Every structure is written in structure tokens, then in C-alpha cells.
Amino acid sequence: MLLQALLSGWKGPSRLHAILDSRAQPKINLTIDVDVHWVNPGLSGRLQAERTLQRAARGGDCVLCFHGLPPMMAINRPGAHVAVFVQNRLVVERGPLRGYPLHVRLRILMERFLFRSRISRVDDIIVQGQGMQRELVALLGARHGMPRIHVRPFAAPILPGAADSTKRFDFIYPASGDVHKNHAKLIEAWECLRREGLAPSLALTLGAQDRLLWDRLHARARSAGLNIFNLGSVDRNAIMEAYGQAKALLFPSTIESFGLPLIEAAAIGLPIVASELDFVRDVCEPVESFDPASAVSIARAVKRFLKQPEKRVDVVSPEMFWAALMAGQTRS
User: Fold this and answer.
1) 171 with 202: CB under 8 angstroms?
2) Contacts with 29 (C-beta within 8 Å, 6 or more apart), sequence order
3) Which of 104, 245, 308, 309 is most buried, by the most CB atoms less than 10 A from its CB?
4) Which class would CATH give 169-305?
5) How is the chain split among helix, strand and coil, in percent rounded to 5?
6) For 121, which DSSP code?
7) Do domains 2-151 and 169-305 have the same CATH topology?
8) Bridge partners of residue 148, in order along the sequence
9) So where are the chain's domains?
10) What's the predicted TM-score (pTM) here?
């Protein structure tokens, strides 16, 4: 996870002070010189974190807001430098949020408001991809007092898992069940392939929080005879092992700030079949690409990767067109 990688990479001259969400506590291995103040999730925890930051910040400090939003309370310390690490592209986008649950839409709309109304309090915005930089430039423009925008991608060292020459599955898609991950269109593509007599295997990584989505996908897969199964929620080591058991990464997401699986797959030489979108081309070179809004396009990219022939329409002469038409009329 990025937070663990970030904390592990601290090499500063003094102790690092961190205010962290308590939900991350079981996942964080603190092996460095760091003071941590844990806060509970939710609005009360956020306000507590803001008050703690207000009291702790000093002139000359560098404050990194890793949660993607500017401080709600201004840090009035001369010489303090404030940077925001923006990962959630939905906060930067200006489009509608159709398809997301109501509570998710409300949360993102509130985060959009907080981001836009308080971004002038920030000195620097840090993103991990050129697509995010372009979105922020379009959103903020060149108004006076707006922060600088830097592209500074980072990731934990990527070590491949053990290679499996037999390959358990054709494709793997490591992703949560968020709407923009596009699982619905992906299963449509697998249904298209099944109607053509093809049944490539696909591994998903939907955890307990996506149980309802997996139940729906599993019912459709079972009804149509699709070769789709779920590995469940997997940690980083397990996903690297799973990459070694797949022929390719399939990535039909419609929006990403970075796309870590793309980085991981490219680093270990796993072929990538992905959406033909800017965020993909910003970080890798897929062997095949597709329109993520089209199940047929996804299916065709899968067929190209599997070296399956694609049936094309035959263009005939006007004479042949009339002959076929008249032959059909005669038969009727």
C-alpha cells in the first residue's frame, strides 16, 4: 500500500510526525523513527486530526496531506509549507456521479466542495500521473494564488511472485467493486465471448465489501457458463503471486489517478490488455487496448490477445447485392 511505502521511505533529518486513520493501524508496520497520532474515521476524527495539526505545526514544517484534501483549518504558521497528495480522480473530475450509491455521491460532492474552496491554502499539489495534472490544470486554471502542480509518482519496490508455467487463468483483474472499475461491462464482454464459443478464464479480487456485486456477477457467470472466479481480497504478496499465474492483466477501468496494477504488471513483464484511455498510456504500453464503454470492443481485444480470428463482414458488388435480394424474394 502507498501509505506503508511512503512511511518506510522517510529519510529526513528529524522524527516524522503522522496523524493517521485508525483503520490503517493493523496494516502499517512502523519500522522508522515516527510519532503517530491515531484518529477514528468519520467527521469527528477528521476534526480531531485538524485540531491536532493546528497545534503541532510550526514555522518551517512541511505538511503533507496524504488524504487528498487541503486542510479544513488554515495553518497560520509563517514558513510552513503545505502539500496535498491527490489520488482520487473523482474529486478532481467535474462530471456526474451516475451509478454510485447515494452515500458515495454525497461524500464525493462534499470532498469536491472542500477541495475547491480550500485549495488556495496549499503551496503544492502532488499527483502521480499526467492525466491528473491535466485535469487539475483545467480545473484550477492559472489564477493567482493557485498551488503548483507536480507529477511525482512513487510505488513500493515491485518484486514478482513465483512464475507458474502452467498459468491458472488467462486474465486477472485486481480491482475493488467501485462503479468506475467497470465490472458490469466486463462481464458483458465475457458473455459476448461465450456466445462465440469462447470461455477464457478470468480472476477477480472482490473482497467482503463487494459481496453483493460478486453475488450478481457470479449468478450471471453461472447462468451463462462463464469461466470467472473470485480470489477475494488479497494482500500485496498474494497479488504478485497471482500475476505469475496469469497470462495477462485485463484492466477495463474507466477512470484512474494512477492505476497501480498497470505499473506492477509492466514492471514484471506481464502483458497488459487495457482501456484506450490517457491514464493507461501515461504509465504503460498495452499489447491490446479497447473502448471500455463497449463490451464488444473489450471482447475483441481479448480475442486478439488469444489469437482468435475475428469474423469480418463481406462487402459485395451492387450486382451481388441484387442477386442475393432477389434470391431471398424468390424463396419466399
Assistant:
1) yes
2) 4, 8
3) 245
4) alpha beta
5) 40, 15, 40
6) G
7) yes
8) 124
9) 2-151, 169-305
10) 0.84
User: Residue 331: pLDDT above 80?
Assistant: no
> How far are the Cα atoms of 126, 271, 319 from residue 2, in angstroms, in the given order?
14, 23, 64
Write the CATH number of the domain with boundaries 2-151.
Answer: 3.40.50
Q: Residue 142 — pLDDT band, cuts 50, 70, 90?
A: low
At 222, the amino acid letter reads R
Which residues are registered as beta bridge partners of 171? 202, 248
Q: Which helix (H) or strand (E) holds 168?
A: none
- Cβ neighbours for 282, distance < 8 A, ≥ 6 positions apart: 129, 130, 131
- CA–CA distance from 123 to each of 12, 80, 81, 83, 119 (Å)? 20, 9, 6, 6, 9
Overall residue count recorded for the chain in this entry:
332
**Higher model confidence: residue 6 or residue 248?**
248
Q: For residues 270 and 285, is the Cβ–Cβ distance under 8 A?
A: no
Q: What is the grid cell recorded at 50?
A: 485538524
